[in-house]
Model the fold of this input.
Amino acid sequence: MTTATAIASGRRVTEPELIARVLAGDRIAARELYDAHAPRVYRLAFRLTGDADLARESTQDVFVKAFRQLVNFRGDAALGTWLHRITVTVSANAMRKVKRMRERETDLDQRDVMGSHGSDDVDPVLRDKLHRAIDALPEIYRVTLIMHDIEGYTHIEIATSLGVAEGTCKSRLSLARGKLRAALSDLAEELEL
Amino acid sequence: MTDERFDDLMRDAAHTYNVPPDMPPIEQMWQSIEEARRQQEQAAELGSVRPIVVKPLKRSLLQQSWLRMAAMLLLGLGLGRASVAVVAAPSSEATVAATPFKPETTVPAQYQLVTDHYLGQAAALLLALPGELSNKPADASFTTRADELLLQTRLLLDSPATSDPALRMLFEDLEIVLAQLVRLQADRDPTRIDMLYQALEQRDVIPRLRSAVVDRIAD
Done:
Protein backbone atom coordinates (compact mmCIF):
# COMPACT_ATOMS: atom_id res chain seq x y z
CA MET A 1 0.00 0.00 0.00
CA THR A 2 1.44 3.41 -0.99
CA THR A 3 0.94 6.58 1.00
CA ALA A 4 -1.52 7.79 -1.62
CA THR A 5 -3.73 4.74 -1.07
CA ALA A 6 -3.34 4.98 2.71
CA ILE A 7 -4.46 8.62 2.59
CA ALA A 8 -7.33 7.77 0.29
CA SER A 9 -8.48 4.99 2.61
CA GLY A 10 -8.49 7.50 5.47
CA ARG A 11 -5.93 5.51 7.46
CA ARG A 12 -3.53 7.51 9.60
CA VAL A 13 0.06 6.69 8.65
CA THR A 14 2.40 6.33 11.63
CA GLU A 15 5.77 8.05 11.67
CA PRO A 16 7.89 4.85 11.43
CA GLU A 17 5.66 3.72 8.55
CA LEU A 18 6.09 7.09 6.85
CA ILE A 19 9.87 6.90 7.25
CA ALA A 20 9.91 3.38 5.80
CA ARG A 21 7.95 4.61 2.81
CA VAL A 22 10.23 7.57 2.24
CA LEU A 23 13.18 5.18 2.29
CA ALA A 24 11.37 3.00 -0.24
CA GLY A 25 11.14 6.03 -2.57
CA ASP A 26 7.50 7.01 -1.97
CA ARG A 27 7.30 10.65 -3.07
CA ILE A 28 3.99 11.37 -1.37
CA ALA A 29 5.37 10.06 1.92
CA ALA A 30 8.36 12.38 1.57
CA ARG A 31 6.03 15.30 0.98
CA GLU A 32 3.86 14.33 3.93
CA LEU A 33 6.86 14.15 6.20
CA TYR A 34 7.98 17.56 4.93
CA ASP A 35 4.52 19.11 5.39
CA ALA A 36 4.38 17.84 8.95
CA HIS A 37 7.74 19.29 9.99
CA ALA A 38 8.67 22.13 7.63
CA PRO A 39 6.70 24.93 9.35
CA ARG A 40 8.37 24.24 12.72
CA VAL A 41 11.83 23.80 11.18
CA TYR A 42 11.46 27.05 9.23
CA ARG A 43 10.24 28.83 12.35
CA LEU A 44 13.25 27.71 14.37
CA ALA A 45 15.63 28.55 11.52
CA PHE A 46 14.10 32.01 11.25
CA ARG A 47 14.38 32.64 14.99
CA LEU A 48 18.01 31.60 14.93
CA THR A 49 19.06 33.47 11.80
CA GLY A 50 16.65 36.42 11.79
CA ASP A 51 16.80 36.45 8.01
CA ALA A 52 14.16 35.19 5.58
CA ASP A 53 16.65 34.01 2.93
CA LEU A 54 18.88 32.26 5.43
CA ALA A 55 15.88 30.63 7.08
CA ARG A 56 14.62 29.38 3.73
CA GLU A 57 18.03 28.08 2.65
CA SER A 58 18.58 26.46 6.03
CA THR A 59 15.20 24.73 5.93
CA GLN A 60 15.94 23.39 2.46
CA ASP A 61 19.36 22.13 3.60
CA VAL A 62 17.82 20.51 6.66
CA PHE A 63 15.42 18.44 4.57
CA VAL A 64 17.94 17.59 1.87
CA LYS A 65 20.30 16.32 4.59
CA ALA A 66 17.47 14.62 6.47
CA PHE A 67 16.24 12.70 3.41
CA ARG A 68 19.81 11.68 2.59
CA GLN A 69 20.57 10.54 6.14
CA LEU A 70 17.14 9.15 6.97
CA VAL A 71 18.51 5.65 6.54
CA ASN A 72 20.75 6.34 9.57
CA PHE A 73 17.89 7.64 11.72
CA ARG A 74 17.60 5.11 14.54
CA GLY A 75 14.39 6.41 16.04
CA ASP A 76 15.86 6.86 19.54
CA ALA A 77 14.29 10.32 19.64
CA ALA A 78 11.27 11.66 17.76
CA LEU A 79 11.88 12.57 14.15
CA GLY A 80 11.01 16.21 14.97
CA THR A 81 13.78 16.34 17.58
CA TRP A 82 16.26 14.89 15.10
CA LEU A 83 15.22 17.50 12.52
CA HIS A 84 15.55 20.31 15.06
CA ARG A 85 19.04 19.12 15.86
CA ILE A 86 19.97 19.35 12.19
CA THR A 87 18.27 22.76 12.03
CA VAL A 88 20.41 24.16 14.83
CA THR A 89 23.61 22.93 13.17
CA VAL A 90 22.65 24.04 9.67
CA SER A 91 21.46 27.47 10.81
CA ALA A 92 24.61 28.04 12.85
CA ASN A 93 26.77 27.08 9.86
CA ALA A 94 24.75 29.31 7.55
CA MET A 95 25.17 32.24 9.88
CA ARG A 96 28.87 31.65 10.25
CA LYS A 97 29.27 31.65 6.50
CA VAL A 98 27.25 34.74 5.82
CA LYS A 99 28.11 36.59 9.02
CA ARG A 100 25.09 38.67 8.38
CA MET A 101 23.46 38.38 11.76
CA ARG A 102 26.08 39.95 13.99
CA GLU A 103 27.22 42.51 11.46
CA ARG A 104 23.94 43.59 10.04
CA GLU A 105 22.74 47.06 10.81
CA THR A 106 19.10 47.08 11.63
CA ASP A 107 17.92 50.56 12.33
CA LEU A 108 15.43 51.41 15.02
CA ASP A 109 12.61 52.00 12.57
CA GLN A 110 12.92 48.46 11.26
CA ARG A 111 13.06 47.08 14.79
CA ASP A 112 9.81 48.90 15.50
CA VAL A 113 8.17 47.22 12.54
CA MET A 114 9.51 43.83 13.62
CA GLY A 115 8.25 44.46 17.13
CA SER A 116 4.82 45.61 16.09
CA HIS A 117 3.14 42.76 17.97
CA GLY A 118 5.02 43.42 21.21
CA SER A 119 3.59 44.77 24.41
CA ASP A 120 3.03 48.53 24.69
CA ASP A 121 4.45 48.32 28.21
CA VAL A 122 7.95 47.64 26.91
CA ASP A 123 10.10 50.63 26.09
CA PRO A 124 11.21 50.35 22.42
CA VAL A 125 14.79 51.28 23.28
CA LEU A 126 14.92 48.59 25.95
CA ARG A 127 13.42 46.06 23.54
CA ASP A 128 16.00 46.90 20.92
CA LYS A 129 18.79 46.58 23.46
CA LEU A 130 17.44 43.18 24.52
CA HIS A 131 17.35 42.00 20.91
CA ARG A 132 20.93 43.09 20.36
CA ALA A 133 21.98 41.44 23.60
CA ILE A 134 20.39 38.17 22.46
CA ASP A 135 22.20 38.49 19.12
CA ALA A 136 25.49 39.01 20.98
CA LEU A 137 25.17 35.92 23.20
CA PRO A 138 27.65 33.10 22.55
CA GLU A 139 26.03 30.57 20.21
CA ILE A 140 25.38 27.79 22.73
CA TYR A 141 23.62 30.17 25.13
CA ARG A 142 21.73 31.92 22.38
CA VAL A 143 20.35 28.71 20.90
CA THR A 144 19.24 27.46 24.30
CA LEU A 145 17.58 30.78 25.18
CA ILE A 146 15.79 31.06 21.84
CA MET A 147 14.54 27.49 21.94
CA HIS A 148 13.34 27.73 25.55
CA ASP A 149 12.21 31.30 26.18
CA ILE A 150 11.25 32.35 22.66
CA GLU A 151 10.02 29.15 21.01
CA GLY A 152 8.80 27.31 24.11
CA TYR A 153 10.72 24.02 23.79
CA THR A 154 11.10 22.03 27.02
CA HIS A 155 14.52 21.40 28.56
CA ILE A 156 14.25 17.73 27.60
CA GLU A 157 13.51 18.62 23.97
CA ILE A 158 16.41 21.07 23.84
CA ALA A 159 18.79 18.67 25.56
CA THR A 160 17.89 15.91 23.09
CA SER A 161 18.13 18.25 20.11
CA LEU A 162 21.53 19.58 21.16
CA GLY A 163 22.85 16.26 22.41
CA VAL A 164 23.60 17.55 25.92
CA ALA A 165 22.40 16.65 29.42
CA GLU A 166 19.25 18.31 30.69
CA GLY A 167 21.25 19.89 33.52
CA THR A 168 23.65 21.44 31.00
CA CYS A 169 20.71 22.91 29.17
CA LYS A 170 19.31 24.45 32.37
CA SER A 171 22.64 25.92 33.37
CA ARG A 172 23.14 27.38 29.87
CA LEU A 173 19.74 29.03 30.06
CA SER A 174 20.50 30.47 33.46
CA LEU A 175 23.82 31.84 32.23
CA ALA A 176 22.18 33.29 29.11
CA ARG A 177 19.58 35.09 31.18
CA GLY A 178 22.26 36.38 33.52
CA LYS A 179 24.19 37.82 30.58
CA LEU A 180 21.06 39.51 29.24
CA ARG A 181 20.23 41.01 32.60
CA ALA A 182 23.76 42.33 32.89
CA ALA A 183 23.55 43.82 29.41
CA LEU A 184 20.28 45.56 30.23
CA SER A 185 21.12 46.68 33.74
CA ASP A 186 22.35 50.20 32.91
CA LEU A 187 19.40 51.04 30.76
CA ALA A 188 16.98 49.40 33.16
CA GLU A 189 18.29 51.61 35.96
CA GLU A 190 17.81 54.68 33.81
CA LEU A 191 14.24 53.61 33.12
CA GLU A 192 13.79 52.78 36.81
CA LEU A 193 12.77 49.17 36.26
CA MET B 1 15.55 44.86 37.31
CA THR B 2 13.08 42.61 39.04
CA ASP B 3 12.60 38.96 38.03
CA GLU B 4 9.02 39.75 37.10
CA ARG B 5 10.05 42.62 34.84
CA PHE B 6 12.72 40.49 33.17
CA ASP B 7 10.18 37.72 32.55
CA ASP B 8 7.85 40.32 30.98
CA LEU B 9 10.69 41.40 28.69
CA MET B 10 11.34 37.81 27.62
CA ARG B 11 7.66 37.25 26.94
CA ASP B 12 7.71 40.37 24.81
CA ALA B 13 10.78 39.05 22.98
CA ALA B 14 8.81 35.93 22.02
CA HIS B 15 6.51 38.24 20.03
CA THR B 16 9.14 40.63 18.73
CA TYR B 17 12.52 38.90 18.32
CA ASN B 18 13.21 37.49 14.83
CA VAL B 19 9.50 36.90 14.28
CA PRO B 20 8.95 34.45 11.42
CA PRO B 21 6.29 35.27 8.83
CA ASP B 22 2.89 33.65 9.35
CA MET B 23 3.20 31.63 6.19
CA PRO B 24 6.59 30.14 5.33
CA PRO B 25 7.37 29.60 1.62
CA ILE B 26 6.56 25.89 1.89
CA GLU B 27 6.09 25.16 -1.81
CA GLN B 28 9.09 27.15 -2.96
CA MET B 29 11.33 25.33 -0.48
CA TRP B 30 9.91 21.93 -1.48
CA GLN B 31 10.73 22.56 -5.12
CA SER B 32 14.34 23.38 -4.22
CA ILE B 33 14.54 20.28 -2.03
CA GLU B 34 13.21 18.08 -4.82
CA GLU B 35 15.66 19.61 -7.28
CA ALA B 36 18.59 19.05 -4.90
CA ARG B 37 17.53 15.44 -4.32
CA ARG B 38 17.23 14.87 -8.05
CA GLN B 39 20.75 16.23 -8.57
CA GLN B 40 22.07 14.03 -5.77
CA GLU B 41 20.45 10.96 -7.29
CA GLN B 42 21.92 11.77 -10.69
CA ALA B 43 25.36 12.32 -9.15
CA ALA B 44 25.04 9.04 -7.25
CA GLU B 45 24.09 7.22 -10.42
CA LEU B 46 27.07 8.67 -12.27
CA GLY B 47 29.30 7.86 -9.33
CA SER B 48 28.13 4.28 -9.22
CA VAL B 49 28.76 3.79 -12.91
CA ARG B 50 32.43 4.76 -12.67
CA PRO B 51 33.66 1.96 -10.38
CA ILE B 52 31.85 -0.62 -12.48
CA VAL B 53 33.64 0.63 -15.58
CA VAL B 54 37.12 0.60 -14.12
CA LYS B 55 36.71 -2.56 -12.05
CA PRO B 56 38.59 -5.45 -13.62
CA LEU B 57 36.25 -8.30 -14.43
CA LYS B 58 37.44 -11.65 -13.21
CA ARG B 59 34.86 -13.69 -15.06
CA SER B 60 33.61 -13.57 -18.57
CA LEU B 61 30.90 -10.91 -18.82
CA LEU B 62 28.17 -13.22 -20.01
CA GLN B 63 28.88 -15.66 -17.18
CA GLN B 64 27.25 -13.16 -14.83
CA SER B 65 23.53 -13.80 -14.66
CA TRP B 66 22.53 -10.18 -13.85
CA LEU B 67 24.49 -8.95 -16.82
CA ARG B 68 22.83 -11.48 -19.11
CA MET B 69 19.44 -10.27 -17.86
CA ALA B 70 20.43 -6.62 -18.35
CA ALA B 71 21.65 -7.38 -21.86
CA MET B 72 18.35 -9.07 -22.69
CA LEU B 73 16.44 -6.11 -21.27
CA LEU B 74 18.47 -3.66 -23.33
CA LEU B 75 17.94 -5.79 -26.41
CA GLY B 76 14.20 -5.82 -25.70
CA LEU B 77 14.13 -2.07 -25.23
CA GLY B 78 16.09 -1.57 -28.43
CA LEU B 79 13.72 -3.76 -30.37
CA GLY B 80 10.75 -1.94 -28.81
CA ARG B 81 12.12 1.44 -29.82
CA ALA B 82 12.87 0.23 -33.30
CA SER B 83 9.30 -1.00 -33.68
CA VAL B 84 7.94 2.31 -32.34
CA ALA B 85 10.07 4.16 -34.89
CA VAL B 86 8.65 1.98 -37.66
CA VAL B 87 5.07 2.52 -36.45
CA ALA B 88 5.59 6.25 -35.97
CA ALA B 89 7.45 6.80 -39.24
CA PRO B 90 4.45 7.78 -41.42
CA SER B 91 3.44 10.54 -38.99
CA SER B 92 6.95 11.97 -38.57
CA GLU B 93 5.90 15.35 -40.05
CA ALA B 94 3.31 15.77 -37.34
CA THR B 95 5.89 14.92 -34.67
CA VAL B 96 7.78 18.16 -35.37
CA ALA B 97 4.83 20.24 -34.26
CA ALA B 98 3.92 17.92 -31.39
CA THR B 99 2.73 19.59 -28.23
CA PRO B 100 4.12 18.39 -24.88
CA PHE B 101 1.00 16.42 -24.02
CA LYS B 102 0.63 14.39 -27.21
CA PRO B 103 0.44 10.75 -26.15
CA GLU B 104 3.01 8.40 -27.67
CA THR B 105 1.76 6.19 -30.44
CA THR B 106 2.46 3.07 -28.35
CA VAL B 107 0.04 4.01 -25.55
CA PRO B 108 -2.86 1.60 -25.91
CA ALA B 109 -6.20 3.19 -26.76
CA GLN B 110 -7.86 2.11 -23.52
CA TYR B 111 -5.19 3.95 -21.48
CA GLN B 112 -5.71 7.04 -23.58
CA LEU B 113 -9.43 6.93 -22.91
CA VAL B 114 -8.91 6.51 -19.17
CA THR B 115 -6.36 9.35 -19.18
CA ASP B 116 -8.74 11.67 -21.05
CA HIS B 117 -11.49 10.89 -18.57
CA TYR B 118 -9.14 11.32 -15.63
CA LEU B 119 -7.86 14.71 -16.84
CA GLY B 120 -11.38 16.00 -17.34
CA GLN B 121 -12.40 14.87 -13.86
CA ALA B 122 -9.28 16.37 -12.27
CA ALA B 123 -9.83 19.69 -14.03
CA ALA B 124 -13.47 19.79 -12.92
CA LEU B 125 -12.51 18.99 -9.34
CA LEU B 126 -9.80 21.65 -9.12
CA LEU B 127 -11.98 24.29 -10.73
CA ALA B 128 -14.66 23.56 -8.13
CA LEU B 129 -12.10 23.82 -5.31
CA PRO B 130 -12.55 27.50 -4.30
CA GLY B 131 -16.31 27.00 -4.01
CA GLU B 132 -15.85 23.80 -2.03
CA LEU B 133 -13.43 25.44 0.42
CA SER B 134 -16.00 28.12 1.17
CA ASN B 135 -18.54 25.40 2.12
CA LYS B 136 -18.94 24.62 5.77
CA PRO B 137 -19.19 21.77 6.51
CA ALA B 138 -17.11 20.07 3.83
CA ASP B 139 -18.96 18.21 1.09
CA ALA B 140 -18.24 14.49 1.58
CA SER B 141 -18.79 13.70 -2.10
CA PHE B 142 -16.01 16.14 -3.02
CA THR B 143 -13.58 14.21 -0.81
CA THR B 144 -14.74 10.93 -2.31
CA ARG B 145 -14.04 12.22 -5.82
CA ALA B 146 -10.62 13.46 -4.74
CA ASP B 147 -9.92 10.04 -3.13
CA GLU B 148 -10.87 8.22 -6.30
CA LEU B 149 -8.75 10.52 -8.43
CA LEU B 150 -5.78 10.11 -6.10
CA LEU B 151 -5.92 6.34 -6.52
CA GLN B 152 -6.36 6.68 -10.27
CA THR B 153 -3.33 8.98 -10.42
CA ARG B 154 -1.12 6.34 -8.85
CA LEU B 155 -2.51 3.62 -11.12
CA LEU B 156 -1.95 5.75 -14.21
CA LEU B 157 1.55 6.72 -13.06
CA ASP B 158 2.37 3.02 -12.85
CA SER B 159 0.94 2.37 -16.33
CA PRO B 160 2.05 3.13 -19.92
CA ALA B 161 -0.44 6.03 -19.93
CA THR B 162 2.19 8.37 -18.51
CA SER B 163 5.06 7.46 -20.80
CA ASP B 164 5.10 11.08 -22.01
CA PRO B 165 7.49 12.93 -19.61
CA ALA B 166 5.46 16.17 -19.57
CA LEU B 167 2.27 14.28 -18.80
CA ARG B 168 4.07 12.27 -16.16
CA MET B 169 5.27 15.44 -14.43
CA LEU B 170 1.75 16.81 -14.47
CA PHE B 171 0.44 13.57 -12.93
CA GLU B 172 3.12 13.66 -10.23
CA ASP B 173 2.16 17.22 -9.33
CA LEU B 174 -1.52 16.27 -9.37
CA GLU B 175 -0.77 13.39 -7.02
CA ILE B 176 0.76 15.80 -4.50
CA VAL B 177 -2.10 18.28 -4.84
CA LEU B 178 -4.79 15.59 -4.54
CA ALA B 179 -3.09 14.09 -1.47
CA GLN B 180 -3.07 17.57 0.10
CA LEU B 181 -6.71 18.01 -0.86
CA VAL B 182 -7.81 14.72 0.70
CA ARG B 183 -5.98 15.51 3.94
CA LEU B 184 -7.46 18.99 3.91
CA GLN B 185 -11.00 17.68 3.99
CA ALA B 186 -10.40 16.09 7.40
CA ASP B 187 -8.74 19.15 8.85
CA ARG B 188 -9.39 22.58 7.31
CA ASP B 189 -6.34 24.15 8.79
CA PRO B 190 -5.75 27.55 7.08
CA THR B 191 -2.02 26.74 6.82
CA ARG B 192 -2.81 23.56 4.87
CA ILE B 193 -5.23 25.48 2.63
CA ASP B 194 -2.48 27.97 1.93
CA MET B 195 -0.01 25.16 1.20
CA LEU B 196 -2.47 23.68 -1.29
CA TYR B 197 -2.92 27.00 -3.10
CA GLN B 198 0.86 27.50 -3.13
CA ALA B 199 1.27 24.06 -4.70
CA LEU B 200 -1.35 24.83 -7.34
CA GLU B 201 0.04 28.24 -8.21
CA GLN B 202 3.77 27.61 -8.11
CA ARG B 203 3.55 24.38 -10.06
CA ASP B 204 1.17 25.96 -12.57
CA VAL B 205 -1.05 22.91 -12.15
CA ILE B 206 -4.33 24.34 -13.43
CA PRO B 207 -2.94 25.96 -16.63
CA ARG B 208 -0.98 22.77 -17.41
CA LEU B 209 -4.02 20.63 -16.75
CA ARG B 210 -6.20 22.84 -18.92
CA SER B 211 -3.64 22.73 -21.71
CA ALA B 212 -3.45 18.92 -21.48
CA VAL B 213 -7.23 18.63 -21.69
CA VAL B 214 -7.42 21.01 -24.67
CA ASP B 215 -4.60 19.22 -26.51
CA ARG B 216 -6.25 15.85 -26.09
CA ILE B 217 -9.63 17.14 -27.20
CA ALA B 218 -7.94 18.62 -30.28
CA ASP B 219 -6.53 15.16 -31.08
Observations:
- Chain B touches chain A through 47 residues (CB under 8 Å).
- DSSP finds ten helices and no strands in chain B.
- Residues 26-54 of chain B form the longest helix (29 residues).
